[in-house]
Amino acid sequence: MGREGGENFPLAVESLLRLAHADQRAIDLVAVDIGPGSFTGLRVGVAFAKGMAQALGIPVVGVRQTEAVARPLAWWPGRVAVWIHDRREFVYLAWASGDRVGAETVLPWQEALAKAAEESGTLVVGSGVEEFRAEIAAATPAIVCASPELASPRPSAIARLGWARYEEVGAEDPKQLEPHYVHKEV
């Protein structure tokens, strides 16, 4: 949505509600993608979600992007490497197996590729795959790249995971809900 994307959030919500033939009173929970991702984009998205939840008097929960990308692939029989592109030559890498998704690390994509290639049949998914798809294919046949349709989390995946988290542990304190930043190790 570009730099002015945050200005479009209220219009997007209004349009979505209109398409669903619903109004704001039908919203019971706000689930928001907390990252990892772009510093500014995450701040704007989380701030909007918290503000909307407060205005509507409803709970809010955060969902890690790596969880939302990996969970639909819980059926994959081997390892799943979630790669979220982090500008230039880096990816956020999280390993997933079944319905469990590990913590993210920031690596140069070549290092993430070497780790993924350690086990044949590893499925790599996420925006990082789209950024480096040609390089991955040229480097090794041991890795399976997920289709481009699976590169970004679907809003419905964020919503389902958010609802499951809410039912399991309840709402998050909006004052404590922050973007999930992952920093490069030095």
Concise synopsis of the structure shown:
By secondary structure, the protein is of the alpha/beta class.
Helix share bin: 40-55%
The amount of beta strand, in percent, is 15-25%
The gyration radius over C-alpha positions equals 17 Å
Helix/strand structural class: alpha/beta
Describe the 3D structure.
This protein is of the alpha/beta class. The protein folds into two domains: 77 residues, Nucleotidyltransferase, domain 5, CATH 3.30.420; 85 residues, ATPase, nucleotide binding domain (Nucleotidyltransferase, domain 5). Helices cover 40% and strands 20% of the residues. It is built from six helices and eight strands. Strands 3, 4, 5, 6, 7 and 8 form a six-stranded mixed β-sheet that branches. Strand 3 and strand 4 form a beta hairpin. It is elongated, with a radius of gyration of 17 Å. The two termini are 32 Å apart. The mean pLDDT is 91.
List the helices and strands and how they pair.
Elements (H helix, E strand, L loop, with lengths): L4 H15 L10 E6 L3 H18 L3 E5 H6 L9 E6 L4 E8 L2 E2 L3 E4 H8 L5 E4 L1 H13 L3 E3 L9 H15 L17
Annotation keywords:
186 residues; alpha/beta; Nucleotidyltransferase, domain 5; six-stranded mixed beta sheet; 6 helices; 20% strand
